[in-house]
Specification:
Layout lengths: L1 H11 L7 H17 L4 H17 L8 H17 L14 E6 L6 H14 L4 E6 L6 H12 L3 E2 L10 H14 L4 E6 L7 H14 L3 E7 L6 H11 L4 E5 L8 H10 L3 E5 L7 E3 L2 H9 L2 H12 L3 H13 L4 H13 L3 H7 L4 H7 L4 H12 L3 H5 L6 H11 L3 H25 L10
Parallel strand pairs: 1-4, 1-5, 2-3, 2-4, 5-6, 6-7
Antiparallel strand pairs: 7-8
Helix pairs in contact: 1-2, 2-3, 2-4, 3-4, 4-11, 5-6, 7-8, 9-10, 14-17, 14-20, 17-19, 19-20
This protein binds guanosine-5'-diphosphate and magnesium ion.
Guanosine-5'-diphosphate binds next to α5.
Length: 440
């Protein structure tokens, strides 16, 4: 993807305004990125349409080139859809707060039960785990192991009674929670590998028996495109008030998050990222957006470019770059602007396809920039704006004044014209100058 994006970025630089063609070109890349992240196709379509609409109405930023700007809009839109701020758990006014877990088998419900219990306990709650998965022989034992690790008691049907009734266990779980003064109870339920009518009804019956304050749909991030149908089935069969995304430690890009969120409108509350109980965190929409987009480095670069961008200066420089009138003075300013963004090497590392420029820029390390700066500072304004007048005696004076050899001044002047070409490229890549026509 990175290569494709690079070509888009370079094709689009140096244009003053977002055209439909600019937006379409970048939108195509975004579309591929989302599909690669396993976002369901209808969700991708709706999302791209929304982004295009916003990009068309957007004011052109002078800090970013058009492609960067579209990527920025995409990211903002993703964060907004994924939930903006994280929502907290709904707690009951009269305890116990009942949290029910629902989801396919293997989605991570039982593990999550332990994680949630441990997390709530850490916040001063006194949770009780209730074992309502009686489908598989070892499901209860698994919850008991998890409960022991979390240091949280488990309410389960007495062993030896054959297969118990999960609805009755759920009911008795509430009595137990009240009796033993647990302020939260977490109900673990059964799930099948596919969506299953009978189990869906069982979950609905448990729901009716305990009237949960929060029903969490637990979904494996690796589920990919199937997230939509699964989420719809659970929404219609049981209903849920929040989503937990699991197995984010895997290499799934997390498109399921966007799909589930778009289709059900329910917030994603937590993220699970490992088998251990502490591998658990509140859900962070911004992190997930960046993961889905798969352009974290580009996003960092955009942020930095915006932060350190001096609009007036760049607009002036951009105009000059456009007409090929860049002076040494501008060169110095641009160099300083780039340096404000951090060491050159870091910047290069962040650019997709930086390889293409690395050869040209390898000669421009930070120390060398210091020397170049010193030389330019040693010149008169006339010399800076018109390097052609810098003859032999001027070179000698400048060299003496800035403490370098005459050869270095020669180098600088000779390379200035070459550098001017390079600055044009950098202007496009880093966002200044390239999009610098200013607004409207
Ligand atoms: P349930 O069938 O929904 O109760 O799912 P389980 O809690 O039994 O989890 C199924 C498997 O996934 C188990 O092997 C868990 O250890 C594993 N698992 C659960 N959550 C995560 C997670 O966030 N990351 C990883 N890597 N494994 C997980
Ligand atoms: Mg389970």
């Amino acid at each position: 993807l990175s290569d494709r994006l690079t070509s888009v970025l370079s094709n689009l630089r140096s244009k003053g305004r977002l055209s439909d063609a600019d937006i379409d070109a970048t939108a195509r890349e975004i579309r591929i990125a989302l599909l690669e992240a396993d976002v369901a196709l209808p969700v991708v379509r709706a999302f791209i349409a929304k982004v295009k609409e916003r990009a068309k109405g957007a004011e052109v930023s002078a800090a970013l080139n058009p492609a960067q700007q579209v990527v920025k809009i995409v990211n903002e839109e993703l964060v907004a859809i994924l939930g903006g701020e994280t929502r907290r758990l709904n707690m009951a006014k009269t305890p116990p707060t009942v949290i029910m877990l629902a989801g396919l088998q293997g989605s991570g419900k039982t593990t999550l039960a332990g994680k949630l219990a441990r997390w709530l306990k850490g916040q001063g709650h006194t949770p009780l785990l209730v074992a309502c998965d009686l489908q598989r022989p070892n499901a209860v034992t698994q919850l008991q192991v998890v409960g022991e690790r979390a240091g949280v008691p488990v309410f389960a049907p007495e062993p030896g009674n054959g297969v118990g009734d999960p609805i009755s266990v759920a009911r008795r779980g509430i009595d137990e929670a009240k009796h033993a003064q647990h302020d939260v109870m977490i109900v673990d339920t059964a799930g099948r590998l596919g969506v299953d009518e009978e189990l869906m009804k069982q979950a609905a019956d448990i729901r009716d028996a305990v009237t949960p304050d929060e029903t969490l749909f637990v979904v494996d991030a690796m589920i990919g495109q199937d997230a939509v149908t699964t989420a719809e089935a659970f929404r219609d069969g049981v209903g849920f008030t929040g989503v937990v995304l699991t197995k984010l430690d895997g290499d799934a890009r997390g498109g399921a998050a966007l799909s589930v969120r778009e289709v059900t409108g329910q917030p994603i509350l937590f993220a699970s990222n490992g088998e251990k109980l502490e591998d658990f965190d509140a859900f962070h929409p911004d992190r997930m957006a960046s993961r889905i987009l798969g352009m974290g480095d580009v996003l960092t670069l955009i942020e930095q470019a915006e932060q350190h961008f001096d609009q007036d200066q760049a607009e002036a420089a951009a105009a000059k770059i456009g007409t090929g009138e860049l002076t040494l003075e501008d060169f110095l300013e641009q160099m300083l602007a780039v340096r404000k963004m951090g060491p050159i090497a870091n910047l290069l590392g962040m650019l997709p396809g930086a390889g293409q420029m690395k050869d040209q820029l390898s000669q421009v390390d930070d120390k060398q920039l210091d020397r170049l700066q010193a030389i330019i500072r040693g010149m008169t304004p006339a010399e800076r704006s018109n390097p052609k007048i810098i003859d032999g005696s001027r070179r000698k004076r400048i060299a003496n004044g800035s403490g370098v050899a005459v050869r270095e001044v020669n180098d600088l002047v000779n390379r200035f014209y070459e550098a001017r070409k390079m600055m044009k490229q950098m202007a496009g890549r880093f966002g200044f100058g390239g999009g610098g026509g200013g607004s409207s």
